[in-house]
Amino acid sequence: MTRPLILVTPATTVIPDVHGADYAAVDAGLLTLTEQGINPVFACGDFDSPKTPLDPCDVPEGCRLLRFPAEKNESDSQLAVQEAIHLGYDPVILTGSLSGRIDHTLANIRLLTHHHPGLILTDKEQQIRLLPPGIHVVTREFQHISLFALELSCISLESMQYPLDHRMVDEADIYTLSNEVAENEEKGIIHVHSGRLLLVQSNLP
């Protein structure tokens, strides 16, 4: 039986409360978890930040520490996601992954689109996930709903403010920006007939 894993990064400001989930830390995200009284199943990173040096006392009992050199090809988040998937967690939710440095955000998006399509990227007010072919439901949890094709794709949108019917979209299209669930509807339906798209949801103005 699979269960969710919340991966807490150093940029995390709000730790999601997901029923039945375990928690793990990316680098200094370990301190964020322990300050909230949450014991992670593992912590992964180089722990080289001079602002948040790792003290052995910071590692809770039962937390497996995966320490890597600072000079490496993979990011700390990538290594943590790989470990989570190896352990069988699903979904893996990477928090704070859309905050901070833009190059880190882009790296996290590439981690989603090119390596781990089941990954969910979140911060306090936003979420990104990948939509493969199939029927997907969106709710009013987020106000703004945008879609960006990763390849030539065919989609239909139902119960949305701006509906579509078997519309072809490609990587250059941006008119699928900033949609929302239609008035008097509780949920919207995204039917991906073919292709892959990024679903970007936000509550920011």
UniProtKB/TrEMBL annotation:
Keywords associated with the record: ATP-binding, Kinase, Nucleotide-binding, Transferase
Thiamin pyrophosphokinase catalytic domain span: 24-114
EC number annotated for this UniProt entry: 2.7.6.2
Enzyme class, spelled out: transferase
Protein name stated in the entry: Thiamine diphosphokinase
GO molecular-function term, one example from the UniProt record: kinase activity
Gene Ontology biological process terms from the UniProt entry: thiamine diphosphate biosynthetic process; thiamine metabolic process
